[in-house]
Each structure stands twice: as C-alpha cells, then as structure tokens.
Design a protein that fits this description.
alpha/beta, 6 helices, seven-stranded mixed sheet, Rossmann fold, Dihydroorotate dehydrogenase B (pyrk subunit), domain 3, five-stranded antiparallel sheet, Elongation Factor Tu (Ef-tu), domain 3, single chain, about 230 residues
Length: about 230
C-alpha cells in the first residue's frame, strides 16, 4: 500500500479511475504502470494505491522509500456510476483487483447510499483491509478454501439468493467479472465492470488496450476502464 502526497491540490478523482506510475527504479521497464486508485484523502492531498509485486516495474514502485518522489499521471479513464436513486447496491471484487471498491464505497456512503461489498479470494490472506471497507459498507466474504467467509467463488455466495440489487459494480479477475455479469444479465440488473486490459500509454494513443465491444474497438484506458456490461460482447 502506497500513500502518495501531492503538494498541489488534488483534482476531482472518480472511483474507478486510475493513475500511470513511472517505474524509475527499474532498469528494463520503459512504460508506466497503470494502477487503480484505492482511496483519496482530499483534506491531506493524499492518494492511496494498492500495488501487487509482479514484475520489475511494480517491484520498483513497491520499493519506493518514504519521502521519495514518484512521477504520476492522473486521473485517467472513466469511473463507476453513482446514483442517489439506487436503493440497493452490490460491489463485488476479487483479490487485489478489488482495490477501486474502497473509494467507490466511500463515495457512495457520502452520497447517502448503503452499499454491500462482496470480496473474494483464494484464501483468507487474499482478503485485505476489511476494516476499512466496513467503515462504508457491510462486508461479505468468500474464499476458495473456506478459510474465511463462505467457501466458494463470489458468484456462489448466498447473497444472490437472498437479495435483489438496483446496481452491481465489479472489478477483479476476468473470469470472475464474467461470471458476475452473467448473473446480472439473468436477473436483469444494471452492472458495470472495470476491465484490466494490458495498457501502455494510458491516454488512448497506442491502441494497446483495445477491447472489441458492441460499439467496435474501444481503448479501455480512455473509454473505460469502467464499462456497462451492455456495451461488451460477453
């Protein structure tokens, strides 16, 4: 978890938007790394990021020392929808991919909504920052091995048989998002997902992150990363 402080006043940041971080400490990494915004603190001009150490670039970013300076382009992309008209909202996230949901739950709470958050992971070690989520929402959990919450996938949680929702927001592994989208379609529930296509420029210029949609090929970094499932060819 990285907390970035800006000496300038933060711009308006929508839940679901992302930043592009330059990995200055990585010798063989030339492209910025796209990272979702996990939380925003306008009072102290801070942005919080959750970064998974995967390759040389993310390792260099994670190894940033306190007080060091990171080169960041933000905010990028389009965020999740938030409507005060919704009565029941479900936020579904898997593993580290759930990162944008904390800020989304926070914004929804500020707007008078009471979202439910459903977090999934392989084991209990993959479910993080539960207490932070609970500040803004009721939290439900699934793990593949049953070490925390209900055993199984998020698409198998008992909440699907107990509640109906006006809106569902999803982010995480692609198979998980597709399974939740299928449930949303079956229930005729409005649903948005945050795609994680491979990105390079983050500005819609390089066409690296193109997704084939009902509207043709669209750049996820510019037209997304959040899409209503009705726009996708899933």
């Amino acid at each position: 978890m990285l907390v970035l402080h800006s000496q300038d006043e933060l711009p308006d940041i929508l839940p679901g938007q992302f930043v592009q971080v330059r990995a200055d400490g990585a010798k063989n990494t030339y492209l910025r790394r796209p990272i979702s915004v996990h939380d925003v603190d306008y009072e102290h001009n801070n942005i919080t990021l959750l970064v998974q150490r995967v390759g040389e670039g993310t390792k260099a970013i994670c190894d940033s020392e306190i007080g060091s300076v990171l080169n960041v382009v933000y905010p990028l992309g389009n965020g999740f929808s938030v409507s005060s008209d919704w009565k029941s909202v479900l936020l579904v996230g898997g593993g580290i991919g759930a990162a944008p949901l904390l800020y989304l739950a926070k914004v929804m709470k500020i707007k008078g909504l009471s979202p439910l958050v459903l977090l999934g992971g392989k084991t209990k070690n993959d479910i993080i920052r539960i207490d932070e989520y609970r500040k803004y929402a009721d939290v439900m959990i699934t793990t593949d091995d049953g070490s925390l919450g209900e055993k199984g996938f998020v698409s198998q949680h008992s909440v699907w048989n107990l509640r109906e929702f006006d809106h569902i927001a999803v982010c995480g592994p692609l198979p998980m998002m597709k399974s939740v989208a299928a449930i949303a379609r079956q229930k005729n529930t409005d649903c948005e997902v945050s795609l994680e296509n491979m990105m390079a420029c983050g500005l819609g210029a390089c066409l690296c992150c193109v997704e084939n949609t009902k509207e043709g090929n669209l750049c996820v970094c510019k037209e997304g990363p959040v899409f209503n499932i009705n726009r996708l060819l899933w």
